[in-house]
Amino acid sequence: MRYMELSATAKVILGMLGSGPKSGYDIKSITDRSTRFFWAASYGQIYPELKRLAEAGLAEPTSDPQGGRQRTTYALTAAGRDALEAWTGSPGIHHELRDEGSLKVFFASLAGEEVFAQALREKRDFHQAELGRLREIIPFADQAGRKGPSDVLEYGIGLHEFASNWCSDKLKEVERET
Amino acid sequence: MRYMELSATAKVILGMLGSGPKSGYDIKSITDRSTRFFWAASYGQIYPELKRLAEAGLAEPTSDPQGGRQRTTYALTAAGRDALEAWTGSPGIHHELRDEGSLKVFFASLAGEEVFAQALREKRDFHQAELGRLREIIPFADQAGRKGPSDVLEYGIGLHEFASNWCSDKLKEVERET
DNA sequence: CGAGACATGTAAATAGTTACATGATTCA
DNA sequence: TGAATCATGTAACTATTTACATGTCTCG
Question: Which helix (H) or strand (E) holds A62?
Answer without folding.
Answer: strand A59-63
